[in-house]
Design goal:
- The structure holds 2 protein chains of 2 kinds.
- Chain A is globular and about 35 Å long.
- Chain A is an all-beta fold.
- Chain A is built from no helices and 11 strands.
- In chain A, strand 4 and strand 5 form a beta hairpin.
- Chain B is mostly beta strands.
- Chain B is about 0% helix and about 55% strand.
- In chain B, the strands form 2 sheets. In chain B, strands 2, 4, 5, 9, 10 and 11 form a 6-stranded mixed beta sheet that branches. A 5-stranded antiparallel beta sheet of chain B has the order 1-3-8-7-6, with no helix packed on it.
- In chain B, a hairpin with a 4-residue loop joins strand 7 and strand 8.
- Chain B starts with a strand and ends with a strand.
- The chains are: A mainly beta, B mainly beta.
- At the A-B interface, strand 5, strand 9 and strand 10 of A face strand 5, strand 9 and strand 10 of B.
Chain lengths: ~110, ~110
């Protein structure tokens, strides 16, 4: 079955740690996105990539980094520079001017 | 820049109708509509492309006025399953463009 998979579902980070959220898709989509969701804020764009080996900052990229070495994969690293990382993170992929498919999300909590 | 959704929240009784609006300050190529249940991934409802197209399925339909840079989602004879948060996502240009979401409209349908 084609789809987009995020892992882990829940993630706990200690202060000062970097953590990486995984996002894999087998839909052959060129575009992939990372969004952060906080209560009342909607979906805010962190990074996006339209093609392999290329990515662009979104509205709230500070404290995050990404890579796009393969078409199928778009991991997000939450660095220690992100001061308030507790949130629900959603990855999405999109093929052309069509619907975006979302993963099930990763809930990150700082402990 | 996030599109603006209104209202922020709606409470309905089963069988009542609702309209959710989405507006942008930018010229739009497409508008997407998604519904999200708490803690889950957003689910695609429909996409409207430049051209003032109206779409619908079942009792949910949407319109897109590209001149006004606005879209509206119409929920007719609401069902309990319609409860959730509705997001509009907009794309400004065809080709390489980002999908930017509004803050969402929370809809609660009660028996």
């Amino acid at each position: 079955d084609g789809g987009i998979t995020q892992s882990p579902k829940y993630l706990f980070r200690k202060e000062g740690q970097n953590v990486t959220l995984s996002c894999e898709q087998n839909l052959n989509h060129d575009a992939m996105y990372w969004y952060r969701q906080d209560p009342g804020q909607g979906l805010r764009l962190i990074y996006y990539s339209q093609i392999v080996n290329d990515f662009q900052k979104g509205d709230i990229a500070e404290g995050y980094s990404v890579s796009r070495e393969k078409k199928e994969s778009f991991p997000l690293t939450v660095t220690s520079a992100q001061k308030n990382p507790t949130a629900f993170y959603l990855c999405a992929s999109q093929g052309g001017q069509s619907e975006a498919f979302f993963g099930q999300g990763t809930r990150l909590t700082v402990v | 820049q996030q599109p603006v959704q209104s209202p922020q929240a709606v409470i309905l009784r089963e069988g009542e109708d609702a309209v959710i609006n989405c507006s942008s300050s930018k010229a739009l190529y497409s508008v997407h509509w998604y519904r999200q249940k708490h803690g889950e991934a957003p689910v695609f409802l429909m996409i409207l492309l430049k051209g003032g197209e109206q779409k619908g399925h079942d009792k949910i339909s949407a319109s897109f006025n590209e001149k006004k840079q606005q879209s509206s989602l119409y929920l007719t004879a609401s069902q309990l399953s319609y409860s959730g948060t509705y997001f509009c996502g907009t794309e400004e240009n065809s080709g390489y463009s980002t999908l930017t979401f509004g803050k969402g409209t929370m809809l609660l349908v009660s028996p």
